[in-house]
Specification:
The complex is a heterodimer of chains A (about 230) and B (about 280). Chain A is mainly alpha-helical and about 230 residues long. Helices cover about 80% and strands about 0% of the residues of chain A. Chain A has a single domain, classed as MetI-like fold, CATH 1.10.3720. Chain A is built from nine helices and no strands. In chain A, helix 2 packs antiparallel against helix 8, helix 3 packs across helix 5 and helix 6 crosses helix 7. Chain B is of the alpha/beta class and about 280 residues long. Chain B has a domain of about 70 residues. Helix content of chain B is about 35%, strand content about 25%. Chain B is built from nine helices and twelve strands. Chain B has a six-stranded mixed beta sheet with strand order 8-9-10-3-11-12, sandwiched between helices. Chain B has a four-stranded antiparallel beta sheet with strand order 2-1-4-5, with helices on one face. In chain B, helix 3 crosses helix 4, helix 3 packs parallel to helix 5 and helix 5 packs parallel to helix 6. The chains are: A mainly alpha (about 230), B alpha/beta (about 280). At the A-B interface, helix 6 and helix 7 of A face helix 2, strand 8, helix 3 and helix 5 of B.
Chain lengths: ~230, ~280
């Protein structure tokens, strides 16, 4: 007997899916914002002249990069209450672990971006009398950031997909919502198909935007438009 | 004339390889000194030590009569110089540097390239800095390019912007590190003319160059550097036309092997520097 597809039940459950999508978006936005901020600090540490700062950055990046994201998530879920005394919360564990996860990968993007700026740029700023911090701030980082934009786009898309890890600790994002619906309605195939489509519908425009940005950056050749 | 820069026994080694072996040199206010020599003779290293982009291994550097750094004597009685980064930043802010590769900031307009250091380091307002940028862009003959990005300019124009950027800090001395070596041959002239104009206006300049004609016509003093020491020094006439040392003679023989008659061209005026490529 051929399988009969039936999506009708999902229409009634639309609000539920939307709530899941909203949680996914919230987790994505928070982890991206904190991840990029952590990454900036750690990326600068990784590029610093001081061996101590470089060491801190390296330990952080390697610790995160060489453990599975899923393991980190579950670890934080159990560790946060013990380390901080806060009540165990799927949201907090997801937000913290995905921020740190994104932070490590974006630290590498910042580091590579900073390293891609020619030595002559540092030197010219230095020769004008700028100290290390100002060389970084006025000359190197602005140029590096332009070059990093495509890589950050990829990271944002990766992170959107990584938010589904949070379903394993019962955070009510899209995948977790789907799991509940699928078990409830006994229609896993339709439910997960719908989730796939929702992810594609949201991320495809983001991917497209990244490609366009990438082209623009390539055209500007590292030079930013005025102000 | 007051002295702006004095080097005493300047020595620089990379590991066990000595590049500068005790250079003594004084540059007085308003003077233009050209340093010539073969590749590897230590010309660029010399300039880079003057503004501490490279740190001297030994020797003293005086800027406007003041010793840079602090001399300490270790237990064995050997005196070495100690430098504080904050002091070196202040020194660099008083020494203008022009690089072979221009090194303009590509994410800023020409004007912003010239304005940023006066604003952030000297504390000028944007308005004052803009006025100053206009003044110095005018001196190097490209007042009309203020709003352009470096990528939109020819090499010669970029290098003149780089000169204006250094001038805008109103440095005690300008250093030129083979400023025309990376330029297409037909763009060399406009940069050299801009540099000659500065020399005529009394800018103190220490210039590393391969342009012997420029050195002959513009410098008050020419220094021939050989294997990290000053091998011959004197007026352009003495060093470039009547060199007494065999090494200097060999060098000049090498770089002036073929000659041609002077081409008959129309007159060159200062205005031609403003056209660029």
């Amino acid at each position: 007997m051929p399988y009969v597809w039936d999506f009708n039940f999902l229409l009634q459950l639309g609000p539920l899916l939307l709530a899941g999508l909203a949680n996914t978006a919230k987790l994505w936005a928070v982890a991206l914002a904190f991840g990029l901020a952590i990454g900036l600090v750690m990326g600068i540490f990784r590029s610093a002249p001081s061996a101590i700062l470089r060491g801190i950055g390296t330990v952080y990046v390697e610790a995160i990069r060489n453990t599975p994201g899923l393991v980190q998530l579950i670890w934080f879920f159990y560790a946060i209450p013990i380390l901080t005394g806060l009540q165990s919360s799927a949201w907090l564990a997801s937000a913290v672990s995905l921020s740190l996860y994104t932070g490590a990968y974006s630290a590498e993007i910042y580091r590579a971006g900073i390293a891609s700026v020619e030595a002559g740029q540092w030197e010219a700023a230095r020769a004008l009398g700028f100290g290390y911090r100002d060389q970084m701030r006025y000359v190197v980082l602005p140029q590096a950031l332009m070059r990093m934009i495509p890589a950050f786009g990829n990271r944002a898309i990766e992170l959107a997909k990584a938010t589904t890890l949070a379903s394993t600790i019962a955070f009510g994002e899209l995948l977790y919502t789907a799991k509940t619906i699928a078990e409830d309605q006994l229609r896993p195939l339709e439910t997960y198909t719908a989730i796939t489509l929702i992810f594609t519908a949201v991320l495809l425009p983001v991917s497209y935007l990244c490609v366009r940005l990438e082209r623009r950056v390539a055209r500007n050749n590292g030079g930013a438009p005025r102000d | 004339m007051t002295e702006v820069l004095r080097l005493e026994g300047l020595t620089k080694s990379y590991g066990a390889t000595p590049v500068l072996k005790g250079v003594d040199l004084t540059v007085r206010r308003g003077e233009t000194v050209c340093v010539i020599g073969a590749s590897g003779s230590g010309k660029s290293t010399l300039l880079r030590c003057v503004n501490f982009l490279g740190y001297p291994t030994a020797g003293r550097i005086y800027l406007e009569g003041k010793l840079v750094g602090r001399e300490v004597t270790d237990r064995a009685g050997v005196a070495t110089m100690r430098y504080r980064e904050s002091e070196l930043c202040a020194v660099r802010a008083h020494v203008g540097m022009v690089f072979q590769q221009f090194n303009l900031f590509p994410h800023m307009t020409v004007e912003e390239n010239v304005m940023i250091a006066p604003i952030k380091i000297r504390g000028l307002s944007r308005q004052e800095a803009r006025k100053r940028a206009a003044l110095h862009l005018d001196r190097v003959g490209i007042p009309e390019k203020a709003g352009a990005f470096p990528g939109q300019l020819s090499g010669g124009q970029q290098q003149r912007v780089a000169i204006a950027r250094a001038l805008a800090m109103e440095p005690a001395i300008m250093l030129f590190d083979e400023a025309t070596s990376a330029l297409d041959p037909e763009l060399v002239g406009e940069v050299l003319l801009a540099m000659r104009k500065l020399a005529q206006e009394g800018t103190t300049m220490l210039i590393v160059t391969h342009e012997l004609g420029f050195a002959y016509n513009v410098a008050q003093r020419v220094i021939y550097l050989h294997e990290g020491t000053i091998h011959e020094e004197g007026t352009p006439e003495q060093v470039l036309v009547n060199p007494t040392k065999p090494r200097t003679q060999d060098f000049l023989r090498g770089v002036t092997t073929f000659r041609m008659p002077e081409p008959r061209l129309g007159p060159v005026d200062q205005a031609s520097t403003s056209k660029g490529a």
